[in-house]
Design goal:
The chain is an alpha/beta fold. Helix content is about 45%, strand content about 20%. Strands 3, 4, 5, 6, 7, 10, 11 and 12 form an 8-stranded mixed beta sheet that branches. Strands 1-2 form a two-stranded antiparallel ribbon.
Length: about 300
């Protein structure tokens, strides 16, 4: 075994990052004596002191700082290689990913960059509603999906929460409230709405109806369409008011539509986004989302 094998470098980095052998051993899930011996052995083979030791902990020497910087690059590349080989071995063809439109604004670009940076195949992407994704996951037509809960997932499919996105009001540009910075839901409750089909999100549809009822109005749905661009086009045409998530409003502007915050609905009108996949693939994709590779 050479002095600079990957195990020795990972152990060295753990001590360098945590500052004590005790904390590093805990992070590595090993006991202190073998880790202490490993660091001493590494120093002996290199013929230099990597740490200045004191009662306050272990501090890198100049030589140790050089090794730390280089070791991070080396270990990062090794992790990258391991991940790429394992991912390709478990997924010999490009992934088939389904996604709702909300995923376009945040997590999906991160996944695509993560796959590209890891030299992994570009996935085959399909924009689909949540029910369509659940059916495709059940039938094996999708490997993973970005969808909105609550859903009953097929056997063998797990999910992970990715975030919550509150709704704003989408108003025709000439609407009496279009110039306001924020409004209450009650101020638009009696107006006709342009919404997604109820089967696409029954719980959210029910929350909208409940808010209208609490405001003393019956929910009037002027039109239903599953895509946000279609909804906004109808809003721009004056058919009614609509709802758009805050993250979508931040990246999407639509001529003839004014977006106004809702002050009293953040705990009632929101979209949760989940990633659903078989557990092993879910773990791999979760790593891509939470741990970008070295550039």
């Amino acid at each position: 075994m050479t002095a600079l094998d990957h195990r020795a470098l990972r152990q060295f980095l753990a001590v360098a990052d945590h500052g004590t052998v005790r904390a590093a051993a805990r992070a590595l899930h090993m006991s202190q004596p073998p880790l202490t011996a490993a660091i001493a052995q590494l120093e002996g083979r290199l013929g230099v002191s990597l740490f200045d030791r004191s009662v306050r902990g272990m501090h890198l020497t100049e030589a140790g700082a050089v090794l730390r910087d280089e070791a991070r690059t080396i270990v990062g590349r090794l992790n990258h290689l391991e991940e790429r080989v394992r991912f390709i071995g478990g997924n010999p063809r490009p992934l088939r990913l389904g996604f709702v439109s909300a995923a376009l604004n945040a997590v999906l670009p991160t996944v695509l960059r993560g796959l590209r940076n890891r030299d992994l195949p570009t996935p085959f992407l399909s924009e689909m509603t949540t029910p369509e994704q659940v059916a495709a996951l059940r039938d094996g037509r999708l490997d993973a999906g970005f969808l909105h809960p609550p859903v009953s997932l097929p056997e063998g499919i797990a999910s992970r929460a990715l975030g919550r996105d509150p709704y704003c009001a989408a108003l025709p540009a000439g609407h009496r409230l279009a110039g306001r910075g924020a409004i209450r839901f009650a101020e638009i409750a009696s107006e006709p709405f342009v919404l997604f089909p109820e089967h696409q999100g029954p719980d959210l549809h029910g929350a909208i109806r409940a808010l209208a009822d609490a405001s003393g109005s019956d929910l009037v749905v002027a039109a239903e369409t599953p895509r946000i661009h279609s909804q906004l086009a109808l809003v721009a045409g004056g058919l009614g008011v609509g709802l758009i998530t805050r993250s979508t409003a931040a990246v999407l502007t639509f001529e003839g539509v004014s977006v106004v915050d809702l002050t009293d609905t953040a705990d009632r009108l929101y979209l949760d986004l989940h990633l659903a996949a078989p557990p092993r693939l879910l773990q791999d994709l979760d790593r891509i989302l939470s741990d970008p590779p070295p550039g």
